[in-house]
Every structure is written in C-alpha cells, then in structure tokens.
Specification:
1 helix; single chain
C-alpha cells in the first residue's frame, strides 16, 4: 500500500469570508461520495487516509543568501 495522498494543508480549509459552506449545498455530499468512490476505484483502496506524519526538507523555510551556493539546484 502506498502512503496517503496529501490533499492540502489544514489551514487552507478555513474561509471566514465565504458566504456559504460546501456542506450547506444539498448536492455536495453526493458529489463528494462519487469523488471518493472514484479514488477508491483508481487506487483499489481508499488513499485518503488520516495521518499526522509529515516530512519536510532540511531546507524547509530556511533563508539562504543569494550569494551562497545551494546544496540542490532547484530548491
């Protein structure tokens, strides 16, 4: 089995300025159900599992001066 699929960060779900929520839409649950079933068919199991495991690169949020050489070309 592969690790869970990361959908997005937790803090990006909040929308205090939104006039309505997805759950208030009557068709949202059915569309969500169809989407989860599609993922299950593609993967052969439900890849959207809850996990608290997180791995960041060593240079995550590390500011490196422009005149310094980076360890990796595309970071």
């Amino acid at each position: 089995r592969k690790p869970p699929v990361k959908v997005t960060s937790r803090w990006t779900f909040r929308c205090p300025g939104c006039p309505t929520t997805l759950s208030s839409n009557s068709s949202h649950f059915e569309e969500r159900h169809q989407c989860i079933n599609f993922f299950s068919q593609v993967y052969g199991y439900t890849p959207l599992l809850y996990t608290q495991y997180r791995v960041d690169s060593v240079l995550f949020k590390t500011r490196i001066a422009h005149d310094k050489t980076k360890c990796f070309k595309y970071i």
